[in-house]
Amino acid sequence: MIRVLLADDEAMIRAGVSAILAAGPDIEVVAQAADGREAVDLARAHRPDVALLDIRMPRLDGLAAAEEIVRTLPGTAVAMLTTFSEDAYVARALGGGATGFLLKSGDPHELIAGVRAVAGGAAFLSPRVARQVIDGYGPRRLVRGAEARARVAVLTPREREVLGLVGAGLSNPEIAARLHLVEGTVKAYVSAVLDRLEVKNRVQAAVVAYEAGLVADDGEAASA
């Protein structure tokens, strides 16, 4: 079972999200919090696989709570679930170590898929958020593309292949199956890629993969 901590200051939202997640037979909401401080405390008490956090909450906002959970509970993946997709929120969440960013206005199936993805070690962004991150704004997109290609040039061909599959949203077991490798080897490749690209997590690596052209427009890893 994927054990989930849900944090939102609105009881109705918590009830609705819990009902949606209950539709996934492999997902269990083990704790619910009404503010960010309570979310951190409950995460420490329950050690969930996934902490699903709203952004705007009293006492401690979701972004600060996410950073604290990522820093103190490495076994818990963090995903943001929010109404807001402003650049500053997305940038801070991903920079703070969150590996998922979901919108409350998204499809319920998207929510379940997102929880499963981050629990499995993959990254998951709402399509609307992903387009913001990938496209960027204005002429900086071309500059970032050139910068990303220069960054991935230091990787070996196999590391670039792994990075493309990370960018396509595959988990370590899925990458292992695709490349006919053992999961431990894939984990080592992913760690090496993160270190060499100097990024904190798989979401940031996925952004580099997209900008460098390692992921096709349909979300599949681009062919070499």
TrEMBL record:
Q: Name one Pfam family in it.
A: GerE
Q: Which SMART domains match?
A: HTH_LUXR, REC
What are the residue boundaries of the HTH luxR-type domain, all occurrences included? 148-213
Per the database entry, which stretches of residues form a coiled coil?
A: none
Q: Give GO MF terms, alphabetically.
A: DNA binding
In what residue span(s) does the Response regulatory domain sit? Answer: 3-119
What InterPro entries does the annotation carry? CheY-like_superfamily, NreC/VraR/RcsB-like_REC, Sig_transdc_resp-reg_C-effctor, Sig_transdc_resp-reg_receiver, Tscrpt_reg_LuxR_C, WalR-like
- Cross-referenced CDD domains: LuxR_C_like (cd06170), REC_NarL-like (cd17535)
Keywords on this record?
A: DNA-binding, Phosphoprotein, Transcription, Transcription regulation
Q: Which domain of life is it from?
A: Bacteria
Q: 4-aspartylphosphate (modified residue): where?
A: D54
Gene Ontology BP terms? phosphorelay signal transduction system; regulation of DNA-templated transcription
Q: What is this protein called?
A: Putative transcriptional regulatory protein YfiK
Species of origin reads Streptomyces aurantiacus JA 4570
